[in-house]
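Input/output pair, single chain:
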Amino acid sequence: MNDQTTRGTEGFTRRARTRLADDRGIALITVTLVGVAVAGLLVVLLVNTVRNYRESREERQIGEVLVLAEGGLDEAVFELNHDNAFTTVGVMPDGLDEAAEKAWVIGAAAGLPTIQGENGEYVIVKPEGTDAAYSVAYSPARDVPHAQVRIIKADLFVSPPVPGSPFLPDVGFSSAGNLTVGDSPSAGIFGTVGGAHANENLLASGGATVAGCTSAYRVNDFAATNPPGCGAATGVFDAVPEVEPLFFHSLAMFDLCVEGGIGVVRAGPAYSGPGTPAVDGKPCTGDNLGLPTSFGWQFQLGVWDYQSGAGVFYVAGGNIDVISQDSGTGSNGATIIAAADNERSLTCDEATGIGTVAGGDIKIAGGTMFSPHSSAGDLAMVAGRDISVQGNASVWGALLAREQVGLAGTPGANNVIVGSSRCNTPGSPEGENELSGAATVTYNGGLSIPNYGAVNPIWNVSIDRWSEL
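Output:
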């Protein structure tokens, strides 16, 4: 082999070794890069797995705490359906925006004991005087740092109880408090049935007379003149049924509403014409039917003036004057149901006898001729607070007042009078149930009052809608 061949072979060998070394370096770099990429993928997968686990856990906790909160609302509705006065806190301030409302609820909940539930705790916040309830839920517990907290608000639908059989009065005047009869010998309660009852004192003034049976829990000035077969004259407590205007709302053909200071007539629950009627127990939710003058009414400065319209009218706030008007009879007759301005928040302190009813008064005067609408039985008028009769009128049927009835004249030819509360609101038109002057009541029996007679009924409470704060 010559020198040239030897040098060629050595050069080839060197080149081969160099190429092999280069290939090994490239392979090492490739393996390293692949390892880094795989490690990166593993890290990403691990991070995603941890994130998904945390998100899944948080979503599960959110679900659990919402379930807790819903359970709190269910419990609140349960309590309200057994006791309509159920509350856990005082009155919520008016005019709160959503953020301020949430802050107030959280603050109120902090002062109330928690109720243990599955996977956490909750607090029911039911403010006084509102148709809303709140549930504040904590998972795993209120005192655990960084606990999940959710607040659910429920707007409640409160509907009157289902009416029972019509009420059949057995006396002409029933009073849950005192009743004073007359200032003259010609005053009194007469008729083939007559009669009077007071859950406090039944007092005579000026030689007045009551025909029929009388009874009272305390003093009864007419006890000596009771006819045979009347039963006990004193020590008798008769559960005088509450007068709640909303009990009668289902009868209303028309709701008289005040909107922006203007009187408006809307379809009531019993409205049968074109349009959508109101929901029973929710006045002024029906279609707008027009102005009061088209239905026999005028409205001015908070007073509804009856002008001989026919139908059953639910007046949702304000006072009512029925002066020198003729309602007609039968289907041309009228029944007036007057609600107080503060139906949802009024109170009666039985211990002091002081009420807090605003508005809902009915004044009858000037020779009024008035008969109930045929669809309302013998129910003529229902007052959210007081009824005042001035002068002689001709009103047929039942006159029911939440607080007092004051008669300075004769209301009609066949009447039942009820003053259902022993409370009196200071400054209201009538301070007590009373026949003054030569006022008389005549009750010949046979009157039937629909939607009345349930004593201390429980209203039906359900969730209208709910939202998360």
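Residues 173-442 form one domain. The longest strand covers residues 148-159.
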